[in-house]
Specification:
The chain is of the alpha/beta class and 480 residues long. It has 15 helices and 11 strands. The protein has 3 domains: 244 residues, Amidase signature (AS) enzymes, CATH 3.90.1300.10; 144 residues, Amidase signature (AS) enzymes, CATH 3.90.1300; 64 residues, no CATH class. Helix 8 links the parallel strand 7 and strand 8.
């Protein structure tokens, strides 16, 4: 059942939240040892939440639009009294004293949190192989990666462990695993969803968003979590989410642009598989058949997004992760002096990819190199914002592949960081500009694995991504 159908059944008394929970816990028990979607299954806490939902229904109260819906939560979002690890040894033993805003909003809507999902350590990766607790496997083919960094959340939905999951997206970490796992994943406009309680990777890029099996469920969840939060200084004050209301509007008369540089056209980025390009072309044809006007557009600076991102994001990470020093919380390795203790704790606590990005970011910010690297990356980011603004004067939405390929085999790219980074070439531009984007499954590649098509829209037009996504989903044959 979809999340919407489960909530309707629970609210009407046709099903109990406890029964729904037991059904999903049984699925987790049967298969998560193979998949490793979860770092922690919170069965006792989930049961208490489910019982509270059933009690509200019995009393004649409405538990909310997500009543009794099991939810998987990425393990970089704070949950009061429940371990939050970021899949890193450095946070060993830490239990946050507060809940993230999105966690409170989802619980208030009646959702039942079943566990904390695995991720690339501190959300740094594209395959969920960088976790200190071992990799997550793709439920559609356990020899393949589920994508990253939110691979555990994507896998939990694809495996049927939960109808909904929450992820964070810094350079594609919701949309790329959604594409690999054949589900829907959406990155909102920067500031549309509160980041309060999200453990920071790169603060100017991070955004929280939904995973779901279909566009309608993702829209339902987005409407719950989006909106102003006074606890987040970057939260947009007047943003009113209306994703669900956008689903039935169709695309008749909508202007759709195909980004030449990200879709296999002239001057395109390298590494796009022909089968992925073909599915994207078929998606464009489906939108044309539904009444949209199609044109090819050029965003020249989009080819520079990967280079700019891997200076901006590591620079912000090197600043954000400086707080993990062995003094205040988390892992502490004793040593004779404070400096040696800091070094020993970070050496033992951080994995190889996190260390790589901290060093890269620190170098980019250092005296003598700031202007040459970080400063230049910020100029590229500004140029990209201007290029996309110019394109959005010609079209309403943009279409690209979500990822250059389908899910690749476990271990194939772990020794080649550059090959891993290229996975985000189509998704990074939306993070650098702060714009919304959604990935919707559209057919399969030559290997039979899902292909995701990405819909990009201007800032604050989040509903438009769901509107177009619903049409693509229908053309692809409906929800997975």
């Amino acid at each position: 059942m979809s999340a919407g159908a489960i909530a309707a059944a629970v609210r009407s008394g046709q099903r109990t939240a406890v029964d729904v929970l037991d059904e999903h816990l049984a699925r987790i028990s049967a298969r998560d040892e193979e998949i490793h979607a979860f770092n922690l299954v919170t069965a006792d806490e989930a049961r208490a939440q489910a019982e509270a939902v059933d009690a509200a229904v019995a009393a004649g109260d409405d538990p909310g639009p997500l009543a009794g819906v099991p939810l998987a939560l990425k393990d970089n979002m704070c949950t009061r009294g429940i371990p939050t690890t970021c899949s890193s040894k450095i946070l060993e033993g830490w239990r946050p004293p507060y809940d993230a805003t999105v966690v409170n909003r989802l619980r208030d809507a009646g959702a039942v949190v079943v566990g904390k999902t695995n991720l690339d350590e501190f959300a740094m990766g594209s395959s969920t192989e960088n976790s200190a607790f071992g990799p997550t496997r793709n439920p559609l083919d356990p020899t393949r990666v589920p994508g990253g960094s939110s691979g555990g959340s994507a896998a939990s939905v694809a495996a049927g462990f939960a109808p909904l999951a929450i992820g964070s997206d810094t350079g594609g970490s919701i949309r790329q695993p959604a594409a690999f796992c054949g589900i829907v994943g959406m990155k909102p406009t920067y500031g549309a969803v509160s980041r309060y309680g999200l453990i920071a990777f790169a603060s100017s890029l991070d955004q929280i968003g939904p995973f779901a099996t279909d566009v309608a469920d993702a829209a339902l969840m987005f409407d719950v979590i989006a909106g102003h939060d006074p606890l987040d200084s970057t939260s947009i004050a007047d943003f009113a989410p209306q994703a669900t209301a956008s689903l039935d509007r169709g695309v008749d008369g909508l202007r759709v642009g195909v980004v030449r540089e990200l879709s296999g056209g002239e001057g395109s980025v390298e590494g796009l598989s022909p089968d992925v390009v073909a599915r994207t072309g078929e998606a464009v044809e489906a939108l044309a058949a539904a009444g949209a006007t199609i044109s090819e557009v050029s965003v020249p600076s989009s080819t520079l997004g990967l280079s700019a991102y891997y200076l901006v994001a590591p620079a912000e990470a090197s600043s954000n992760l400086a707080r993990y020093d062995g003094v205040r919380y988390g892992l502490r390795v004793d040593a004779p002096t404070t400096g040696e203790m800091n070094t020993a704790s970070r050496t033992a606590g951080f994995g190889a990819e996190v260390k790589r990005r901290i060093m890269l970011g620190t170098y980019a910010l250092s005296a003598g190199y700031y202007d040459a690297f970080y400063g230049k990356a910020l100029k590229v980011r500004t140029m990209m914002m201007r290029d996309f603004a110019a394109v959005y004067e010609q079209v309403d939405v943009l279409i690209t592949p979500t990822a250059p390929t389908t899910a690749f085999p476990l271990g194939e790219r772990t020794t080649d960081p550059m090959a891993m980074y290229v996975n985000d070439v189509c998704t990074i531009p939306s993070n650098l500009t702060g714009h919304p984007a959604i990935s919707v499954p559209f057919g399969t590649g030559d290997d039979g694995l899902p292909v995701g098509v990405q819909v990009l829209a201007p800032a604050l037009d989040d509903g438009l991504t769901f509107q177009v996504g619903a049409v693509l989903e229908a053309a692809a044959g409906g929800a997975r």
